[in-house]
Amino acid sequence: MVALNAVKAQNAALNTTLAPGLVAVFVGGTSGIALSTALALARHTVSPKIYLIGRSQPAADDAISTIKSINPSATPTFLKSDISLLKNVDTVCAEISAAENKLNLLFMTPGYLTWKGRDETAEGLDRKFVLHYYARMRFISKLLPLLTAAAQDPDPAGNRLSRVVSVLDPIVAVRLGGTGKLDYHDLSLKNTFTLGRCGAHASLMGDFFLEGLAQKHPQSSFVHAYPSGVNTGVLRDYPIAAAVMSVLARPFMVPIEESGERHLFAATSGRYPSQSEGKFEGDIAAGSDGTKGNGSYWVSWDGESFPANKKLDRIRSGGAVEKVASHTEEVFRAVCEEGKTYP
Ligand SMILES: NC(=O)c1ccc[n+]([C@@H]2O[C@H](COP(=O)([O-])OP(=O)(O)OC[C@H]3O[C@@H](n4cnc5c(N)ncnc54)[C@H](OP(=O)(O)O)[C@@H]3O)[C@@H](O)[C@H]2O)c1
């Protein structure tokens, strides 16, 4: 476990270890873990540019005034969008790309809890699955040029941090005896949707898509993080469940401010380097395939990489990286380039 005081000490030094003007995008930044991380970033850095993406204008107004009160040098911007449609993700990314020439951090948490079954969007995909997987991967695909530009910043005093953090759960498919299987005949779960399969597919597809990106884009690093239980807005539509959980799960809960500090650490620490940073010695986390410093990290709430798992290794050796990437590119081509519903 990375001790909380080590996390806090490293974060507190960011105002000197990072140059002013870091650019960060928080998808899902109006609430919960992403907002708490954005506030921690505002607390510890000089003149950060912070983009918050979500649907709620009142929540964004509150977030922006809190950021400005914590750090008057910060520049927060709200981009209001329902990103359960991939065409809206493209619009938001175009706005960011028009305004910025580099991006240091893409931090993503969008999602919601539901007991309902498949809820298909006009693009033919399940809404929750889009928020947990397709929209996140589309953000990365569209913003990779800016992330690469940050890694290659020619300014000797510039920030070369270039990192993606997706907060979900890298191992939910194999927890509690889960089979950890991907159904390659129906990756989007058009015909075989259950909430359980949706959770497993979103997690595993995120795992292996990010692992593939780290191989193809060695100048950026990619973290898939599990937050543990955090008392956020995620249960806002289920007040009774929220009350029960807050009692039963209290021993396992991470306080929201600690969660923000820990996720800021995941977003900025040299413990999770890109491949091209070439750090394989010292306090470097084990990568998703067990190799230190491979640029792709499956990280638990406490900053440690999850240990190797035979079921996940089997999925990898069955070609998951290539198959998931090829499916995801096919969805993006159909929905975003050709304007079709999928499939
Ligand atoms: N909290 C936990 O204990 C926990 C545990 C394990 C995993 N997770 C996962 O971690 C992630 C973050 O959770 P959290 O607790 O921080 O959740 P949260 O407080 O509910 O925040 C979710 C964010 O997603 C945004 N969002 C939802 N639907 C959207 C849409 N259609 N378009 C744009 N933005 C949308 C919300 O913004 P608007 O309302 O403004 O749209 C909000 O900012 C989730 O994926 C969750 O499943 C959480």
TrEMBL record:
InterPro entries: NAD(P)-bd_dom_sf (IPR036291), Sec_Metab_Biosynth_Oxidored (IPR052228)
The keyword ATP-binding appears for this protein: no
Gene3D superfamilies the record matches: NAD(P)-binding Rossmann-like Domain (3.40.50.720)
Species for this entry: Aspergillus pseudoustus
TM region positions: 20-42
Keywords: Membrane, Oxidoreductase, Transmembrane, Transmembrane helix
The protein's name: Short-chain dehydrogenase
Domain of life: Eukaryota
